[in-house]
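JOB MANIFEST
job_type = single_chain_structure
chain_count = 1
residues = 337
[input]
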Amino acid sequence: MAMKYLALLSLLLNLAVLFSIVPKTTSEGGGYGDDCGDQSGNDVSNLCPAAEAIIFSRVQEAVLEDSRMAASLLRLHFHDCFVNGCDASVLLDDSANFVGEKTAAPNLNSLRGFDVIDAIKSDLESVCPETVSCADILATAARDSVVLSGGPSWDVQMGRKDSFTASKSLANNNIPGPNSTVANLVSKFQNVNLSLRDMVVLSGAHTMGKARCTTFRGRLQGATTSNALDASLEFVQSLQELCSGSDSNATLANLDLATPATFDNQYYVNLLSGQGLLPSDQNLVTGDDQTLELVETYAEDVVAFFEDFKNSMIKMGSLGVGTGMNGEIRRNCRAVN
């Protein structure tokens, strides 16, 4: 018991230092209306002023230990929001009478970072129990991951509620796949009221992270088909070599070969030179004039990319919050209360 109190005291002492450097999280002006704040309608930032520092501290620790974790936490938020909105449904574990989203095709053996979210939730429950939702943790951790990787910051609006349920079928159907055409990508994004511009700029999250060979098999044919004109022959050949081993299903490749752990606009530069890893990425250049124009803009102007990215993240982060009155604030992000 004494060790528990010493650990908590150490955490609280460290927060004083972190408050001066963490990005701002808010539920004031532009939050989620009557759903803003905790279950009583109060302001989360007032009820738990240490929340943002606690989240930032844990994300920083995780990213310092594994730089890939920044991309993983960002991806968790994305996969959550595309299924019934940003309600932490993606975090729910399967049980005897419940099938969650973790075993859906886009998530199985792909999503990671659940332990980081667990650690954040544990810390928050020690300091301010049942005050900060798991959905708000996902949104804030995604922002902090971008900031810690050199990207832009934005105010994360608080007040989301956690869902009572999840949907494996919607996860399979709603989340864009790595072999998607531009038309399919646009359709998936429009289904959740996100625009073509939102789609192109949010795809820029692939400036960080890794992908398995199984997700970009379509790119491996680029050197021997008509697509050769659209792809870098050397790049495709390097992928073919990387994925030629017997254990290639588990082999990982950097989504951005140049700066794989940095949030920048190199992703778009890569696409213009035929070095997009996923077929869905490279299709933004070869499949549509509108998306090509946006890729060219972001490749030339990192400021424009950063500005549009943060605006689209705020827009995505607001998906489904109108249903917050039907949710809760979980004590454990893996299970309903």
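[summary]
The radius of gyration is 20 Å.
The chain is about 45% helix and 5% strand.
exit_status = 0
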